[in-house]
TrEMBL record:
It holds the Pfam family NTP_transferase. The lineage of its organism: Bacteria, Bacillati, Actinomycetota, Actinomycetes, Kitasatosporales. Coiled coil: none annotated. This is NDP-sugar synthase. Gene3D superfamilies: Spore Coat Polysaccharide Biosynthesis Protein SpsA, Chain A (3.90.550.10). It comes from Streptomyces fimbriatus. Residues 3-227 form the Nucleotidyl transferase domain.
């Protein structure tokens, strides 16, 4: 099985932690970088080949990860010379990839079964599979619905339930046909194109542990919780 890890972003929201380190290498706990945890999880799940898409401070990632032999994997790299969006780096890799593969952000902390995501993607026949997670937003204000300058409905401090993308995807190489390598391609653009073509993505619903280390408070929470969750996150590794 083959995985592509997207690790080329600048991690602007996580500054100052990412001033000198690429976001996937910020430490979790006392011993592990996020990217190391992800690679150990992928290896344990049976992935033997991984391509790491690098850009900002990419040489530090390359020096840290090496050829992947320390995790029993074959790791190669794709260099993003300019920002290409979430899916753009895959276009330049297309000929190096198998027909189905896993794509994920390099800053995800989760106990998701990556192999099962890819298996379910293959079984579904969908062009794209999106791992999803339930979120609830509490609105601290009374919400008004207005029409023609009149209040027609009112809800006091409602909650809204919705599902979000976890930043982990099963993807088919054929889904990337028709897009131009070297041009940016966002996840949002790809999903909207598939919906417009009436070829919708498959949703892989997950209710386990998931943190997207995108903001300082998420990062602080990950460090606070890692000691108690380490055996779960690195089981069998």
């Amino acid at each position: 099985m083959h995985a592509v890890i997207l690790a080329g972003g600048k991690g602007v929201r996580l500054r100052p932690y990412t001033t000198a380190l690429p976001k996937p290498l910020v430490p979790i706990g006392d011993q592990h970088a996020i990217l190391e945890i992800v690679l150990r999880q992928l290896s344990t799940a049976g992935f033997t080949h991984c391509t790491v898409a690098i850009g900002h401070l990419g040489e530090i990632i390359r020096a840290y990860v090496g050829d992947g032999s320390q995790w029993g994997m074959n790791i190669d790299y794709a260099v993003e010379e300019s920002p290409l969006g979430t899916m753009g780096p895959l276009l330049t890799l297309r000929e190096r990839l198998p027909e189905t593969f896993l794509v994920m952000n390099g800053d995800v902390l989760t106990d998701l079964d990556y192999a099962d995501v890819l298996d379910r993607h293959r079984e579904s026949g969908a062009p794209l599979t999106i791992a999803t997670y339930a979120r609830k937003v509490h609105i601290d204000f009374g919400v008004l619905t207005t029409r023609a300058s009149k209040v027609v409905a009112f809800t006091e401090k409602p909650s809204m339930d919705y599902r979000v993308s976890m930043g982990v995807y099963g993807l088919s190489r054929s889904t990337l046909e028709g897009y131009t390598p070297g041009l940016p391609l966002g996840f949002d653009e790809l999903v909207l194109d598939l919906l417009a073509a009436q070829d919708p993505p498959h949703a892989y619903e997950f209710d386990g542990y998931w943190l997207d280390i995108g903001r300082p408070d998420d990062y602080d929470r990950a460090n606070a919780e890692f000691t108690t969750r380490k055996s779960m996150l690195l089981k069998g590794a």
